[in-house]
């Protein structure tokens, strides 16, 4: 909790009252909740940002893409447009948002990528526009109570679990911890690799008061081999890390443990890279030129760097992307896949 956050307690109480009343209105049917016209899986959280929703959506895509026709739907946080849009070859991060653009860049025409603030209206438009869609994956819609999905997957991180957090503005929760009761599955993301059964059980016991019957799974982040943005560049173990994500702690730890981390350039989550940012990258690169460094960045940041960097920048400065993926134990993977199969069969 932030220093002096207790001073914000009255505002958190007011926020709690408002969100509880809203949720009760949905629970009682006073506010309408519409069933999805397409079999749907929702990925969300109780906390603002940084729980690994996009990697989880990509995990679902990887599992489903050979079996079903997939569409993804998100709000498109940070985009400069409004309304219902489908990603296409001419789309940019400003048009559809960072994460949808990342997914479209990675999977191309293998899936359909949509954005829209009104999830219910967007789902019906997807059904009309893409009638062969068999599974709809929703990113960050856990608080969108007007949409009723077939499977609700709630994410919480191992280092910053929702049961230790507080409501905005005192903490980072969007709604009360009791909101976890709406989840069909809870996944503890960014967990340490090889977490023993005793630690898992202790963690589960802290979640279970909020949803006693839900399966609680644990996932870790796995990193792949760095991929160049320009084919003429070769990789070097001397790296400068560039990232604009909500929580870069695991990323920084992995890079420092596996490479010679020279410097780190941190930017806010969903950062729009500008001329001065690229000048700073170039300056730091030149300051370390004797070590022949490369810049490493995330998939999320790479799409924005590519779309907004000056002409010739990528040829002059070697930039590599560090892919990530969600990793489950065999037992937990079997559980989540069985839940997914119940939706799509």
UniProtKB/TrEMBL annotation:
It is an enzyme of class 2 (transferase). It comes from the Bacteria. GO terms for molecular function: ATP binding; lipid-A 4'-kinase activity. ATP binds at residues 47-54. GO terms for biological process: lipid A biosynthetic process; lipopolysaccharide core region biosynthetic process. Its EC number is 2.7.1.130. Pfam families: LpxK (PF02606). Pathway: Glycolipid biosynthesis; lipid IV(A) biosynthesis; lipid IV(A) from (3R)-3-hydroxytetradecanoyl-[acyl-carrier-protein] and UDP-N-acetyl-alpha-D-glucosamine: step 6/6. GO terms for cellular component: plasma membrane. It catalyses: a lipid A disaccharide + ATP = a lipid IVA + ADP + H(+). Keywords: ATP-binding, Kinase, Lipid A biosynthesis, Lipid biosynthesis, Lipid metabolism, Nucleotide-binding, Transferase. Transfers the gamma-phosphate of ATP to the 4'-position of a tetraacyldisaccharide 1-phosphate intermediate (termed DS-1-P) to form tetraacyldisaccharide 1,4'-bis-phosphate (lipid IVA). Belongs to the LpxK family. This is Tetraacyldisaccharide 4'-kinase. The gene is lpxK.
